[in-house]
User: Which sequence fits this backbone?
């Protein structure tokens, strides 16, 4: 495949942000080269305006050792990673940041501050994670949810997981959102609970309990993304073979699917946490620079959609 086209989906997302002002982003505990550089790279691209939240001396030391220029970027000093998470969340609550970005602290530590009932960033929605995957040779970006937050979601929780993903797809500019509810087969089998839940989710969409997309399921992975496989199984549906959102039965299935695409198909996996008051950027030290930038671009577009939604509610 032409190398220039290999990651065109991510480049398109970043390009969508070029006309937007940088999104103020609280970066929680950027105390190693990887996390600090990720924030600064996104700032150089004009995607975010980072607020570096962590022990000031440590951040400055990492910057000096790594030859990274942090001049002009605000630092909010804290004593340790736990306080960094709490302070970053507080900056969002105060309206000083419109996105949250994980630094070098553990994901669990950041999310613990996010989900606190009194001081966190909870909404009526279940918090969920979505990978936006750039898979070489696949015509569109593939969204996979939830492969990182909800371990064994209930049907009720899956409603929010699906709706979060649909809203994300619209924020990223999808003209039509086609959601495949995945299982090991494409028929409803009472012995396989994920097939029953898939059928229920589709009926809920029919009744307006899930909005903004076409849902179909249960679908096996092959007939969700391959038109040829869907034809062989004689599945006639606007989603089968053309899905751009894949909803997995549980975290284990999602994790294996995302990592299979990454390590066997050369895909990149930008990640975002949804369902909180602001988008939350989770990057990995193993991520490429482009993947990190794409994760930030996704957050910028979600933040833009949130602003527009709030403006509509006021008017």
Assistant:
């Amino acid at each position: 495949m032409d190398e220039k086209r290999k990651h065109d989906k991510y480049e398109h997302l970043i390009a969508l942000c070029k006309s937007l002002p940088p999104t103020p982003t609280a970066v929680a505990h950027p105390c190693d080269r990887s996390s600090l550089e990720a924030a600064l790279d996104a700032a150089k691209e004009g995607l975010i305006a980072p607020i570096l939240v962590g022990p000031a001396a440590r951040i400055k030391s990492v910057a000096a050792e790594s030859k990274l220029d942090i001049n002009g970027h605000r630092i909010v000093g804290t004593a340790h990673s736990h306080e960094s998470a709490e302070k970053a969340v507080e900056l969002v609550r105060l309206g000083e940041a419109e996105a949250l970005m994980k630094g070098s602290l553990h994901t669990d530590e950041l999310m613990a501050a996010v989900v606190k009932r009194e001081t966190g960033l909870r909404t009526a929605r279940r918090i969920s994670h979505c990978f936006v995957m750039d898979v070489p040779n696949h015509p569109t970006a593939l969204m996979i949810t939830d492969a990182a937050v909800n371990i064994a979601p209930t049907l009720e929780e899956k409603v929010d997981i699906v709706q979060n993903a649909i809203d994300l797809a619209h924020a990223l500019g999808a003209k039509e959102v086609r959601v495949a509810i995945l299982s090991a087969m494409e028929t409803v089998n009472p012995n396989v609970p994920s097939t029953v839940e898939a059928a229920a989710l589709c009926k809920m969409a029919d009744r307006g309990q899930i909005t903004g997309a076409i849902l179909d399921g249960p679908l096996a992975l092959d007939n969700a993304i391959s038109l040829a496989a869907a034809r062989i199984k004689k599945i006639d549906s606007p989603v089968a073979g053309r899905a751009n959102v894949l909803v997995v039965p549980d975290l284990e299935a999602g994790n294996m699917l995302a990592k299979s695409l990454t390590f066997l198909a050369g895909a990149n996996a930008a990640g975002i946490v949804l369902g909180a008051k602001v988008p939350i950027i989770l990057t990995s030290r193993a991520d490429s620079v482009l993947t990190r930038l794409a994760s930030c671009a996704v957050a910028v577009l979600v933040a833009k959609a949130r602003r527009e939604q709030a403006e509509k509610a006021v008017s």
